[in-house]
Amino acid sequence: MEVRSCRGCGKLFNYISGTYLCHGCKKKLEDKFIQVRDYIREHDTATMKDISEDNDISVKQLKQWVREERLTFTDKSPVGIECENCGAMIRTGRFCNKCKNNMANDLRQAYAVKPVEEHGAKSKDKDRMRFLDKN
Predict the structure, then answer these.
(1) Whole-angstrom distance, CA of residue 61 vs CA of residue 66
(2) Is the pLDDT of residue 126 over 70?
């Protein structure tokens, strides 16, 4: 195990994987997330600034939760973040639906298996066993 300094409180802790926060700071952050989630449910037209100020949480942390798809907003909410690819306004995640579809199509095309013909070899000849002449 590795010993690291917590980014939240500065205490040393055994780092295994994930965020650089000790168990206590992770718990506080998760409690804050639940508070923010409940606030958004009650105030569905609140702006990012209102959510940040009323819940004492940074806008950066709110955007991270939205990008992780832990938070999502209704259509009547003024809150939105930019698609990382094209800059369109989205309610949750990192990419808009158009960019997600384009990336999925690009991946499908990249991994499409296309048979490659050998130079003049017939398909039945390429699968046969061959022997070397000892002459």
Answers:
(1) 9
(2) no
Neighbours of 90 (CB within 10 A): 22
Give the residues across from 2 on adjacent strands.
15
User: Could you say which DSSP state residue 68 is in?
Assistant: T
Sign of CA dihedral 73, 75, 77, 78: positive
Q: Where are the beta strands (DSSP E) in 6-133?
A: 12-15, 81-82, 89-90
CA torsion sign, 121 to 122 to 125 to 126?
positive
Contact 46, 79 (CB under 8 A): yes
Q: Is the pLDDT of residue 122 over 70?
A: no
**Residues 50-69 as b or e (16 or more Cβ within 10 Å = b):** ebbeebebeeeebeebbbee
pTM over 0.85: no
